[in-house]
Amino acid sequence: MTSRPAIASGQSDDYREKLLARASKKGSEIRLSKYPGADGKRRIYRVQSRPGGHGASGAKPGRLSDADMASISAANMHTPAGYSVRAEGSILVLSGPFSRTLHADIKAIGGRWDGKQGENRRVWMVPAGKGLDLERVLWERILRERGIDRETSSPHEVATQWLHFLEASLHDGTIEPSHFLEAQPRVTRFEDLAPRFDDLVSRYDLSTSAPGFHSMSEEEVAERVANRSIVRGIAPALREPAQLGDRWVVYEFIGIPFNLEKRHWVREDGTPLPGVVTGRAQFAYHRPATHEEISACQASVTANEGRLRRRM
Description:
The protein has 312 residues and is an alpha+beta fold.
């Protein structure tokens, strides 16, 4: 019977947990990448199934072939600007401008430069089994390009550098939603920086969804940011009146997802709510409902209740 390794990429956290539990029962081993891909999600890098034969790929019993590992790793690896990774058999090939520091890092993990002493392709070649090490090297280079130095800075300084990167990227229009998911666990652990992170999330939401955002004054932006609530699961209906506590509001748009934290799990008066805080959440932006919108909504509800009573 042929071994059948299961590979997943970009799946939800719930799916990952189920896959991990299922693999554990079957005696399998799963390794997750420590670094997120371009969409901010950690990747399932390798699954080792129970021994069951070599199969068509020629893999040893109990593990994927090196060619399969190279293909999976190359398809999911986040690379710095100007670089790309592809799989050639059991080798990961990194293309891009030559860098002495990058060359030293790749050489340290067992890779080599294909220069004049080889085929002179001017690429780095790394064994498939070193895929996670290559991912770490490239990720550190990405952080350095963003002005984030984890080697010589304290955790608080690194978190501040992340905020500076988000602010600059938001200003020049190069920011991506995945950047917020990458930065959040490093920034929001510090109470003095967490509100700045939420403010940047809202500014990104407004810049992509609110008409005329770039012509708004700081006061108008602050007012829009203040009129937001956190939603989980099913998002509220947009452009329809809804009750939020004792207020009537109209939700205008929903922002990008972020990881829910205990500081978000509070009542409107700021007191903490009991319970476990997990999962993804989004900011929902609203404005006060007009008297006409409230009246129309209440009339519609009364009419629907009347129809239901007649059917009973």
